């Protein structure tokens, strides 16, 4: 009976009820959209970072991460490939990596030689999209792709020949010359000044390391399950291998993102304060308007406790209705921002693009965000709903009816 009476009482003054619900709905929409954008920015940043080179997960011989030399390599057998393959692993990219001297004429510069499967590498890092001149290579060619900065320093262009000199597997001399089929550009200066890509078989022959790789990079279907997938892959391998996530391989970037996340938490706290004051202002207005009504009810015999229960019921109903409405409004808004993200313009956009990042501000559609943010706003609204109770407990009915 109390809930039925409360519901009817709410719609006795439709304007006041709608304004209160609207303030809560707006708060829910604001909280969900901002949190979705925050998560989207971080997820997009991670995607950009791992698509540069590392991938989300890598498999090495134990100790390779600390001492990246050819001697810490391993044979990639069919049985090992089967153990690495998981339902959540989309692509397995074998690589062999080593340092060498790149030379042409009288000019020499150090570089990192990366032997990889061209098609699989493109699936992981979109290497083909970074091509600025020439054509992409395939696994059966005896050619090279070189980074733009390295090509500029060595005065090389497409169809020129690059000579590579270094130390191969188990101290063998590594020497080879390769036609440059394409030039790729990386936003990260360290990569752009020193990368040379060779087909995997060509690089293995150059380094006298047949069937040997230094790492296997993995593309996964759901970055949210990164740690679970890592544990799943590691559980199927012997102790001689190490399975590492991008966070473990690049701790500096992980720490930087944690620092940025802390800054976002501060802004989120400010947002909740703004939301709280907005809802409180609406509740304050509603309470002031109903002072005469409260005074009259107390004067004709309604106990303050019963009136308080009715106000609690009103607060609960308004808060729930406002929260549900906010969630319903948020769904199409977040979906739209996910499919059509906000694009940066001007200098900021150019800075992002120069580093190979997408100049976008995307949103993430995550059910947990909707529930958590709606719950937080609901709690804020319920806590603010205590104010009318406090006001009624101190109310003098005679003074209230005079006003």
Would you write up a description of this structure?
By secondary structure, this protein is of the alpha+beta class. It has 2 domains: 1-49 and 253-401, no CATH class; 56-249, no CATH class. Helix content is 54%, strand content 21%. It contains 16 helices and 14 strands. The protein has helices spanning 2-10, 14-52, 78-84, 118-125, 148-153, 189-192, 200-206, 226-235, 246-249, 251-289, 291-299, 304-339, 346-354, 367-384, 386-393, 397-402, and strands at residues 57-61, 74-75, 89-104, 107-116, 131-134, 143-147, 161-167, 173-184, 195-199, 212-213, 215-220, 241-245, 342-343, 360-361. The chain has a 6-stranded mixed β-barrel with strand order 3-4-9-6-8-7. Strands 2-10 form a two-stranded antiparallel ribbon. A two-stranded antiparallel sheet has the order 13-14. β7 and β8 form a beta hairpin. It is elongated and about 100 Å long. The mean pLDDT is 85.
Topology of helices and strands:
Blueprint (H helix, E strand, L loop, with lengths): L1 H9 L3 H39 L4 E5 L12 E2 L2 H7 L4 E16 L2 E10 L1 H8 L5 E4 L8 E5 H6 L7 E7 L5 E12 L4 H4 L2 E5 H7 L5 E2 L1 E6 L5 H10 L5 E5 H4 L1 H39 L1 H9 L4 H36 L2 E2 L2 H9 L5 E2 L5 H18 L1 H8 L3 H6 L1
Parallel strand pairs: 4-9, 6-8
Antiparallel strand pairs: 1-11, 1-12, 2-10, 3-4, 3-7, 3-11, 5-8, 6-9, 7-8, 13-14
Helix pairs in contact: 1-12, 2-10, 2-12, 2-14, 10-14, 12-14, 12-15
């Amino acid at each position: 009976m109390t809930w039925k009476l409360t519901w009817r009482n709410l719609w006795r003054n439709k304007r006041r009820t709608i304004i209160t619900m609207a303030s809560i709905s707006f708060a829910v929409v604001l909280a969900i959209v901002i949190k979705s954008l925050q998560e989207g920015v971080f997820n997009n940043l991670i995607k950009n970072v791992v698509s540069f080179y590392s991938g989300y997960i890598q498999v090495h011989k134990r100790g390779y991460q600390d001492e990246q030399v050819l001697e810490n390599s391993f044979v990639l057998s069919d049985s090992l490939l089967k153990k690495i393959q998981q339902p959540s692993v989309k692509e397995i990219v074998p690589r062999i990596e080593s340092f060498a001297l790149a030379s042409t004429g009288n000019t020499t510069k150090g570089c990192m030689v990366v032997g990889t499967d061209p098609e699989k590498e493109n699936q992981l890092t979109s290497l083909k999209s970074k091509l600025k001149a020439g054509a992409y290579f395939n696994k059966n060619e005896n050619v090279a792709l070189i980074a733009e900065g390295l090509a500029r320093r060595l005065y090389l262009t497409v169809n020129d020949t690059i000579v590579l000199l270094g130390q191969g597997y188990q101290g063998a001399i590594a020497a080879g010359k390769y036609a440059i089929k394409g030039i790729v550009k990386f936003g990260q200066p360290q990569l752009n000044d020193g990368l040379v890509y060779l087909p995997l078989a060509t690089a293995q022959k150059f380094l006298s390391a047949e069937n040997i790789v230094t790492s296997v990079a993995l593309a996964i279907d759901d970055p949210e399950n990164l740690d679970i997938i890592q544990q799943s892959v590691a559980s199927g391998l012997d102790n001689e291998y190490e399975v590492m996530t991008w966070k473990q391989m690049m701790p500096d970037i992980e720490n930087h993102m944690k620092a940025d996340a802390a800054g976002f938490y501060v802004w989120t706290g400010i947002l909740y304060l703004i939301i709280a004051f907005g809802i409180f202002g609406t509740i304050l207005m509603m309470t002031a308007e109903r002072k005469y009504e409260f005074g009259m009810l107390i004067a004709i015999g309604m106990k303050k406790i019963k009136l308080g229960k009715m106000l609690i019921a009103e607060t609960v109903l308004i808060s729930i209705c406002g929260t549900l409405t906010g969630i319903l409004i948020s769904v199409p808004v977040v979906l739209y921002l996910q499919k059509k993200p906000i694009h940066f313009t001007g200098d900021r956009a150019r800075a992002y693009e120069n580093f190979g990042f997408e100049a976008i501000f995307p949103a993430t559609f995550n059910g947990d965000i909707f529930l958590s943010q709606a719950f937080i706003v609901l709690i804020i609204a319920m806590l603010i709903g205590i104010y009318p109770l406090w006001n009624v407990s101190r109310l003098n009915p005679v003074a209230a009816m005079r006003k």
